[in-house]
Design brief:
Elements lengths: L8 H8 L8 E6 L3 H13 L3 E7 L2 H10 L6 E5 L7 H7 L7 E6 L4 H9 L4 E4 L4 H9 L3
Parallel strand pairs: 1-2, 1-3, 3-4, 4-5
Helix pairs in contact: 3-4
């Protein structure tokens, strides 16, 4: 039997059945605030189920990276307010494939903002402060 010490409960169950594999969600962050980006990166890493594969602080850099590496990410987490470009515009330009998801994070969650984000391609919208646990769960979950 596999050594299960230090593994999460779901992973321990898999290991005990004789099949141990790690499913890591690859996250691309679009956040211009370096402190917020660092905190979110640390929180995602701490889940043990998410890996930040890239990050940027502008719409142009995000759209370019996501388009040039379509097989390198599973979830894009996008802040709406960026100093160069906007999360709204980025949503319209991102092309998702094979179950990729886009989550918006903002301090401006209103019914209108949520509706606009969803209409432009977001799969979920989270408040940066109040919904951080829900965001972490969403990012770590299956597509």
């Amino acid at each position: 039997m596999a050594d299960v010490a230090g593994l999460s409960k779901p992973t321990r169950k898999i290991a005990r059945r004789g099949t141990l594999f790690a499913m890591t969600t690859r996250i691309y962050l679009v956040e211009d605030n370096l402190a917020a980006r660092s905190a979110l990166t640390d929180a995602l890493r701490a889940t043990g189920q998410s890996e930040v594969v890239g990050a940027s602080g502008t719409e142009k850099d995000a759209v370019t990276w996501l388009a040039s590496k379509p097989d390198a990410w599973d979830v894009a987490v996008i802040d709406l307010l960026l100093p160069q470009g906007s999360g709204f515009s980025a949503l319209q330009k991102i092309r998702k494939t094979r179950g990729q998801r886009v989550a918006v994070v903002t301090n401006l969650v209103t019914p209108e903002v949520r509706e606009r984000c969803m209409a432009w391609g977001a799969d979920a919208v989270f408040d940066k402060v109040q919904d951080i646990d829900a965001l972490l769960t969403y990012c770590a979950g299956p597509g």
